[in-house]
Every structure is written in C-alpha cells, then in structure tokens.
Amino acid sequence: MARARKTRELWAWRQRLKNDLLYGLMRVGFSAARVLPMRGALRLLGCLAPHIFLRSARRAQRQLREILPDLDAVKITRRMFVHFAESLWELSRLHRSVPELDREARRTLDAALAEGKGAVLISGHIGNWELMGQAIAAAGFPIATIAKPSYDPRVTEWLKEWRTAHGLQVVWRDEGNAGKSILRVLRQNGLMAFLIDQNTRTAGEFVPFFGRPAFTPTIPAAIALRTGAPIIFCWHHRRVKRHILSFERICYAATGDPKRDTPALTALFNDRLESAIRAVPEQWVWLHSRWGHVPLR
C-alpha cells in the first residue's frame, strides 16, 4: 500500500480523481456482482457496449471484416461484448464455484508433469481465460501465469489477491527477475502459462496468424525448447452455460537450431490458436489491434 500511496502522489489532481473513481467503481461493481442477481443486467450492458465504446467496436468490426469476411462483423462484435459481460459475471462467482477439469484434461496434465520438467501452457485471450487458470489451480495443479502490472498499484494488488485465491501464482512481467521466476516454476515441476495473442513489449517475431504476419512473443517457445518441458495448448469456451476446457499436447521435433525452431514452434502455437478462434469467433478479443504493426523490410 505504501507503493500505491507513493504512485498516487505523483499523479496530477485530475488523473488522481479519475483513477480513484475508476478504482472505486471497479471494487464496488465487482462486489455488487458477487451478491446481486446481475447476470441479466450485465448481458444487457454487453448488448449496449458497442454503442458506448464506439472506437473499440469499430476496430473489432474492421478486423473481423478483414480476417473473417464471411461472418457478420456487427453481430459477432455485439456477441463478443455480451461474452465479456458473461465472463465478468462468472468471475464474480468464483468464490461459490469453479469449473472442474474432466478426466481427459487431468490425464493430459498429469502425464506432462510425470516427466518432471514442468510444462509450458499456451493459450490466448479466448473464452474466459481467467476462469481457465482458476480451474486448473483449483484442481490442485501448480500453475503460474505471467501478467503485466496495472498503471495503478492498487489494481495490481487487488488482482494479485483475487487471482491467487485458488492457488494460481502470478509472475509480474516488469519485475527484473521475471525470467528466473518462470524457470523456477518449471524446475519445481509446475505449469507455466502464457497468453501469446497480443502485441507486447517482449522478444518476438512476425509469424503467420490468420494468414497475415503478426508480432508474436517467442519466449514461450524458446523456454520450452531450452528446458525440454512438455507443451500443452489449452483454451476455454462457453457453450450456453457449459464450460468446455480443452487441453492438447503439442509435439514438435526440434532440429537443434534455435533460430529456426523458435519461430517455427511459435507459428505452430498461432495455428492452434487460430483454429480455436474459428470455432468460437465471438469469444476472442477482437478489440486488440492484433495486426497493428507490420514487419520491417
């Protein structure tokens, strides 16, 4: 909290007022969703969201028209916002119940950890990705994920408290020892989860995604190749009110040349994620400018 107070003192008064308001609304809104029957209200808000967040909705529709032209971009965007609203409601109910992993999911994770090298989990911002991490942790598997701290330390601290409630560990990306923390998770035979579908300030390369070059983090592939840890692609999606968590072991025959293997394996990750998105396009974050940068020639 001392860090939060110090950061708050550095803000201009208008920024302080805005951030205090946003933080207060976040805490009050989430607390209300935990105890009140707000599912219908949140879904209605999701339907209205494209008319409120116009810039984000237009970006989503533009990318949908360019990437999946056969789909109704307006309809998918509206369903995407409703999906986000539904996800928020689900996350507010985690103190009551967490989805259970089925027998096949447990078998896949157990087999990977039996090798004693930990495992690298690959996924994206599809379905309710936060719920998936909580479900894995609640099932008793040692899992950690990497996250970026918020601009507001109070939000970072609250997210840390919420995310770790069921045993999920968090490795903060901006910490100087993040790399060592990731390797420590694997050495302790844990699951290290990465979301690879957004442009981030990290090591990466332009590899195909929906047939177009997209800057993709290569650290997960590099770590898996370096440590020999098993790789599992996993993703969550919702069918009506049913949670489906899919886990697939990825096998890659390395050539021994990291400069060749790392981008090739990263491209394989993108291929798996693309297939998952095509199955439920309304449950992916089309708001993000995924193809916002182009490779230098």
Question: What descriptive keywords fit this protein?
Answer:
two-stranded antiparallel sheet; 52% helix; 11 helices; 297 residues; globular; 6-stranded mixed beta sheet; alpha/beta
Could you explain how this protein is built, in words?
- This protein has 297 residues and is α/β, with parallel strands linked by helices.
- It has helices spanning 2-10, 13-35, 39-52, 54-67, 73-92, 103-113, 129-138, 153-163, 178-187, 219-227, 258-279; strands at residues 119-123, 143-147, 169-172, 191-195, 204-209, 212-217, 231-239, 242-250.
- The longest helix is centred in the first third of the chain and has 23 residues, at 13-35.
**How many DSSP E strands?**
8
Share of residues in helices: 40-55%
What is the average per-residue confidence, as pLDDT, rounded to a whole number? Answer: 88
The sequence of SSEs as H and E is HHHHHHEHEHEHEEEHEEH
The profile of the biggest β sheet is: 6 strands, mixed
Assign an overall shape. Answer: globular
Radius of gyration: 20 Å
Within the largest sheet, what's the order of strands? 3-2-4-1-7-8
Number of helical segments with 4 or more residues: 11
Question: Which class of secondary structure composition applies to the elements?
Answer: alpha/beta
In short:
With 297 residues, the protein is α/β, with parallel strands linked by helices. The chain has helices at residues 2-10, 13-35, 39-52, 54-67, 73-92, 103-113, 129-138, 153-163, 178-187, 219-227, 258-279; strands at residues 119-123, 143-147, 169-172, 191-195, 204-209, 212-217, 231-239, 242-250.
